[in-house]
# Entry
Amino acid sequence: MRYAFYPGCLAQTEQFGCMLSAKEALGRLGLELEEMDGSSCCGYQSFRLSSPITWHFLAARNMALAEGMGLDVLTICNECSLSFKRVKKALAQDLQLKNHVDKALGMEGLAYKAKSEAYHVVEVLHDKIGVKSISDSVENPLENLRFATQPGCHLFRPKELGMPDEAEPHKLDALVEALGAEVVDYPAKLDCCGASMYASDEGSTLKVARRKLRSVKESKLDGVVTICPHCFRTLDTAQGDMRGVSGYERLKVPVIYYTQLLGLAMGINATRLGLQFNVSPVEQIYRL
Amino acid sequence: MDKDNFSLRLGCPYCDELLPSHRALRVHIGSDHKEKIDEFMEKYFGGRWIEVDFISLMLRKSVGELSEESCLECGGCDVACPVSVVHEGFRPFDVPLQLLEGKVREILSSDVLWGCTSCYACGQNCNAGMPPFDVIETLMNLSARTGYHYPRRYKEYDRSILRSGVIQRPGAMKMADITRLAREDVGLPKLPAQPDLTDFKEAIRMLADMRGLQ
# Structure
């Protein structure tokens, strides 16, 4: 299976663990990920708010690049996935908007024909590769580990848009269980991690994320598995900052990105999966 | 807004009558307040940019869909909202309700809108089928575009996209310029090639400057 690989800004420029592990582990499963030269931000975290037309242009331009390569897009970011889905729908419904976007795309010699699909990595892993094949690829089953999962809002909301997972998300759980670990429900599972407000109100983001991590901690689980770089940043990287906001002790909940966990189960070296970039005490998981 | 007293504090902004309860407000919702919003948009922008026309269109659509039945005041959105527990003053239902009263300017000048995380939980938990999220997003657009409020970090993100195609922390960009270290040298994945920035910027500028609907 070949895809145009669209990691999104955060994985490319900041959350290197997501990017390194996705390339490493997905490559082992036989996925061919082609670099998208000339790609740009999908616009969701920026121009969506200041200039919706430019947002539609940015997302359409990345889709157009993938069309040029004759491939569907595979993204590892929930927000990029939502961005592509929303823009695709809007451009199909609003011809006037599409005309403006087409005109701007024309200036770069691009054209958007709505031919390529954008898939979230969970869709590809669960629906196309299948839980069985992932189970077969496991060399070190992650037995005796109990995880909380954080599917991330934009994996399953808003359901009207046809999201990668159903309203009661179960695909990430199935993918974690395929590695031999146990998945346990916890009260705040479907709650937002607060990431989208990071740019405008960091303090509130940290408070929202902290509530979530507390819920995991109180459920006495071994860690959180997430599949979105934005959730990963707020839960993992910002964990040290939370103390400043709340004044409490550090929570020290290990947070791991799904492809990192997949790589560990496949027996890939921790450094190749970028685990040295995780800020939370993730070594508690893989040194067991 | 104080949740317990919110029905008492609503007053009609366009007539002198004080409204004792939200039941009475419903009488005032309707034709002329929607016109107030049209007036606001016309006065400030009068169809100057396609961008504003587009936002205006979306706003009119949201307002057109809002009616006295739009909010059942069940509090479903508030219960689901991850922000309203930690952010004093953020209540998802507030925004559509204030918009119905015609208080566009008040909403735009407060920074409450920017607390929304776009998680859509309010929409999935709305018993009236009128998700506050759509209205909030359109008003964020309007607030940014009219210069009322646009958080500093988002401005940096926009600038970073114009400079490099992707969102990068300003510090990281500066470091890359100074050290000239290739990312692969320190074990990081190689980035795909940048867009042709001249054409890319030109296209974005064209979208931002287009005047009038063609």
Strands of chain A lie at 2-6, 32-35, 73-75, 118-120, 146-150, 182-183, 223-226, 255-257. Chain A touches chain B through 62 residues (CB under 8 Å).
